[in-house]
Design a protein that fits this description.
2 copies of one chain form a homodimer. With 506 residues, chain A is of the alpha/beta class. Helix content of chain A is 45%, strand content 14%.
């Protein structure tokens, strides 16, 4: 029995072929949501203690396309992406200072001022890259009550213990009856060998244990009362609490960056099972891969980690120029989300040209005239089927883009008069761009295609260059010089070349 | 002892003259913050169960200008503006359904999906009107723990009682030792006569009592555990909790719409005193007044309540055309916040013209050339002093705008060659616009003034018109016609008039 066909009325016929690369099984599996046409999807959001980095942008772009495609297929998606505003410690484990608390201390701010500032920045960056807001964007501090309740349940079930006001998850105990490490492929004894006992962690029965609740020391700015101490929740807990609160104890898709697979997601699974029983909480786990720059891992310490803003303005030593947000979006979608993606100037410039080609054809499409004796749609329907096949193959956006390039060739042939299409054919092409380029890939026609002022400016420049060429042809040097001088005043540089006159704006 | 002068190093000398219309004393009082240069300001934000209405925009614009002016004076402002995402009932008192829960039920959504949708809308509208984000934007659901703690304190102090799992504030008991009604000017016995016992309120000892915690009935979607019941906090409580958590038990400014004065703000004061003791929690209460349309109260039921979007697009039967967000902002600032403001087409169109005049002069200012024998600054310094005097008089933005219009006259005189200014004079004018029009009123120069691409387009058009005039002078009709044709293709219409050639874009 095919669960998706039971709701076929609302779903695209292509929905039944969607396959997801499930990190849990390490296989591509056919997508069968628990309760179609409803889909629950949870994605780990940012810890809002600093400006968003490009790795975040890639991760959230990946799940933006997943979200857009599921909606396109007719699913009713509840997409939850959280904001971590407490509990994420500088050591990324159970030691160190709270990341937000530390920033607040350094900048002499209230922690929630830090949260607000970087949440605003995060939202601004998401908007610039046309990443849709999720259905719900819950915060860790907004779910203290629920986190305490979940800890109580885990203790009750025997998988956690209190020590000096803190509560730890008992990994060894859990592993006796569950497969701890299933998602990340880690083996508990190997983990044991890699782990060192850390300062202040002697409260733990075992170094593998992780905090569910930490007693706040005097320097800790954010804390709440609990049955165990005035303290704060462990980092992993919030995602278990907020995903199940809004999506149920078992839900369809959980996403996040590859670096969260262990320990964060492994701990989430353990917490959910420790609280709610042995069923796998998440059916499909998806993980987005990392960024590299000129072949090396992007990181602040390597000095090769530019920000979204630097990428757009070109204001970084590794960047030859700025790249528009649409170019960056398009560039990222040219790589499959599960593979690493390498930033380099040639690759970004190629993406810029590719996007221009796509947008150019998309622009031409609006004016194509049908011819009833022209070619009909069959070949074009095949293009559409290939587009679905690409997306159904674990959201393979690079293959989808190749399909769109094939459509570009058709458009250009028609525009050049080398091919004629009937109305059905033209409509099929238009729907292909509108569904796959606009709705699913989230590309915006006007940005690189140049409508509005940019187009007009170029048009006016062409008029002026024509007049200047004529003046030169007529040996009217006074007019030619006047034109050059006036343009210089306006911040326009012109350059005569083999292929005519080109221009750049300051 | 003048408290502001103790921190004179960081504060503008004009700071000491700022006076606020304090709703609590019903007088204009000199502003003396508790701990200068720090200022704490709390403003009641929206209940996010529907799209933002224009009354909200006016209220938040009012406090945006207060915030901007305090920052301009050198104060370090922590501005807290909350999001109400639970507890606000349809009856605006203690009866009815939760506004967000009701919307969720009607639209078959999770309540937090409703919250997210309308929080996004709210942020979008704030951005469109250039209303700055606050320092902290806390939510009611994010402070359940703190609300429970405050209720416990009020009960402990004898000003609240439990009944069937709900907790009510004991107004009569409070009034024995406190002045209940001081802010709103209500008398407790008159209130008594106006109040009817309502269904399901028989738990209250007195109809004046209000809920701090309500036991959730089966239909209630949002609820949390508490010492009294699985339930939810009363509407008034969140603001007492979040203002004091982030600003301290006594803080400087509390703002909100006039309609919140009673019961909401009166109850806030009672709660704060009931929990923390007899000191007034807020030194200055500011209340923004309501909107009218063609002289009648703006309301949905009257059919005269257009949305911000309708106002911008002009898509409403009462609107002759759309008005840009900057025009609306400017229009609203032409009225003092404490008075009602009437929307009408003639008034909006007058504001549009007024803003154009202001922006036109502001644009000219960039190119004014000084003349060292020109007039010096004294008269202009007086303008600046008048600008401060206007803002210091309870943020009197209409008077400030009149001062800016006087500056416009000076700019236009200089630009027309009827007056010359020295460099100091020009700098004084520029600083006046940059401080008061841009930073304090939050007006944006480019909207009506046209910088960027628009400027370049105009520059190129001037070059082309010059070339066309020359062609015509040389009787080179072919070139003149070519220019006109090419411009028509680009959607540019040109028109020859007495004062030269003008152009319009499609």
């Amino acid at each position: 029995m095919d669960s998706t066909t039971t709701a076929a009325g609302t779903l695209s016929p292509f929905a039944k072929d969607l396959h997801l690369g499930n990190s849990l099984s390490r296989e591509k599996e056919r997508f069968e949501p628990y309760n179609p046409p409803y889909v629950g999807m949870y994605v780990c959001g940012p810890t809002v203690y600093s400006n968003v980095h490009l790795g975040n942008v890639r991760t959230f772009l990946t799940f933006d396309v997943v979200y857009r495609y599921l909606i396109h297929l007719g699913y009713k998606v509840r997409y939850v992406r959280n904001i971590t505003d407490v509990g994420h410690l500088t050591g990324d484990t159970d030691d160190g200072e709270d990341k937000i608390g530390k920033k607040a201390r350094l900048e002499n701010l209230e922690p929630m001022e830090v949260v607000q500032r970087y949440t605003n920045d995060f939202h601004d960056v998401m908007r610039v890259f046309r990443i849709l807001p999720p259905s719900i964007e819950p915060t860790a501090t907004g779910h203290i009550v629920e986190q305490i309740a979940m800890i109580e349940k885990i203790i009750e079930n025997g998988f956690a213990y209190e020590a000096n006001g803190s509560v730890y998850f008992d990994v060894r105990k859990f592993a006796e009856s569950h497969h701890y490490g299933e998602l990340s492929g880690r083996k508990i004894d190997e983990l044991q060998n890699q782990t060192r006992a850390l300062d202040g962690q002697d409260e733990k029965r075992d170094p593998l244990d992780f905090a569910l609740w930490k007693k706040a020391d005097a320097s800790h700015l954010m804390h709440w009362p609990s049955p165990w101490s005035e303290g704060f929740p462990g980092w992993h807990l919030e995602c278990s609490v907020m995903s199940t609160k809004y999506l149920g104890r078992t839900f369809d898709i959980h996403g996040g960056g590859m670096d969260l697979k262990f320990p964060h997601h492994e701990c989430e699974i353990a917490q959910n099972m420790g609280a709610h029983g042995p069923e796998q909480p998440v059916r499909y786990w998806l993980h987005g891969n990392m960024l590299t720059v000129n072949g090396r891992k992007m990181s602040k310490s390597e000095g090769n980690g530019f920000t979204p803003e630097e990428l757009i303005t070109g204001n970084h030593k590794l960047l030859e120029k700025g790249y528009s947000p649409m170019t960056v979006r398009f560039f990222m979608l040219q790589g499959h989300y599960a593979g690493t993606l390498d930033f380099s100037n040639p690759a970004l410039q190629a993406a810029e040209k590719g996007l221009e080609r796509l947008m150019g054809a998309w622009g031409l499409l609006a004016d194509l005239k049908p011819c009833e004796s022209g070619e009909a749609a069959p070949d074009l329907a095949a293009l559409r089927a290939r587009a679905y096949a690409a997306m159904n193959d674990d959201f393979n956006t690079p293959v989808l883009i190749a399909v769109l390039y094939d459509a570009v060739k058709v458009v250009n042939s028609v525009a050049a008069g080398r091919m004629v299409l009937n109305a059905e054919g033209i409509d099929t092409l238009r729907a292909l761009f509108s569904d796959f380029a606009a709705d699913i890939l989230g590309l915006e026609q006007e940005v690189a295609g140049g409508a509005g002022d940019g187009d007009r400016t170029d048009g006016l420049m062409e008029v002026i260059c024509t007049l200047r060429s004529e003046a030169k042809a007529n040996k009217d040097w006074a007019t030619a010089d006047l034109i050059r001088d006036r343009l210089t005043e306006l911040g326009v540089q012109i350059k005569d070349g083999k292929d005519g006159t080109s221009w750049t704006f300051d």
